[in-house]
Amino acid sequence: MVGAAVTGLLVSRSLRTFNDAQLIQCLPQARATHVFLDVEKLRRGGVLDLIAGSKSAEDADYKAFLDHTGLDYRTDIDAIAAAFSEGNTYLAMRGRFDWKRLSAYVKSQGGRCAEPSCSMPATRPGYFVSLTPLRPAVLAIAVSTDEHGVKMIGLQDWRKPPRLPAEPVWLSVPSYALSEASLGAGTHAFLEPLSQAQEVTFAAGPAGGAFQLRVEAVCATPEIAELMTRRLAASTDMLKKMLEREHLTASPNDLSGVLVGGTFAQQKERVNGSWPVSRGFLESLAGGQLH
What we know:
By secondary structure, the protein is an alpha+beta fold. It has helices at 2-15, 20-24, 39-44, 47-52, 60-69, 99-108, 175-180, 185-191, 222-245, 255-259, 279-286; strands at residues 33-37, 77-85, 88-95, 112-114, 117-121, 128-135, 138-144, 169-173, 199-207, 210-218, 263-267, 270-277. A twelve-stranded antiparallel beta sheet has the order 4-5-6-7-3-2-1-8-9-10-12-11. Strand 4 and strand 5 (117-121) form a beta hairpin.
């Protein structure tokens, strides 16, 4: 009876899916940029179709993958957690997956499977795509230089558990990456001050009848937070003056219109900022017409 009870408990645990925090904690933590998308929430809000674009615009590789596996992120995936580290990509996705079709597709592309995982060469030279089911409703995928990179993905205890914003889309980036990023001069003026923070999280989601991009930076001291707040406000003011000097009007449908709407506030060691994002901006971004 005890053996049956233990077996039942193990089976129950193996069938249980992961919540959002657990999905993130399946990923490598150190020196990684983390991204989370609540795809189900975006789908319900009508945002997914907006940012995904038309099905007719999907590339040939994705169409071939869809034909062979039946996996469509528009309908089959409910949440995606991603980590980007040293050129490698790690994904933990919650949704509905047909592992038999996925493994058959890998084999058809010259890959191989050794249960419970599969791997195949990626289109990028020197990289491999490896995948494995973590739970019936959780799929892990790695695109890395390691043929078995997917072994890096699995539920683990983070030294510092992640704090999940309420928004359906968020990104947590190491502050040093903001100073190293190759960005346009205008965008760099806003992101470079954030490189002095200990933690930086961006989040995006609905706000009233429109959308909002929000940033939260945690600094070592209130003095650093105060300086960062002043620098961000100064960059916004400088952009406004540049547009006025050129007799230009910021449009809410382009990046300048988003940036000039930024507001910032300090709360002890934290800096909070927000930018209003119009639906027109999202449409321009999805259509590749952003300037």
